Predict the structure.
Amino acid sequence: MEDEAKIDQLHACGGNAAVPTCRVEFIAGEPPRMTAAEKSVLAARGLAGVRLSCQIVCDHDMAVRAISRFAGSGRVDVGGRPLDEIQPQPVVWVDK
């Protein structure tokens, strides 16, 4: 999202599924599975109807709305750049 769509998406934990600052809402094409780390973070924060962009594999057409944007956040930066591979390893997939 940051590179190709030029969206100022927050990612305070650097893409490690530690905090829900990279939240997106799916408009179309939501994957039926998520990482166990993503499910755990969302459940711990009581969040529903959103996903963590750092935990989504973009392997098909999908449309999302970025919820956690840098503009207007009051933060000094977007956070550490996430790696190209989903973290933390090992990645465990669960039904959403």
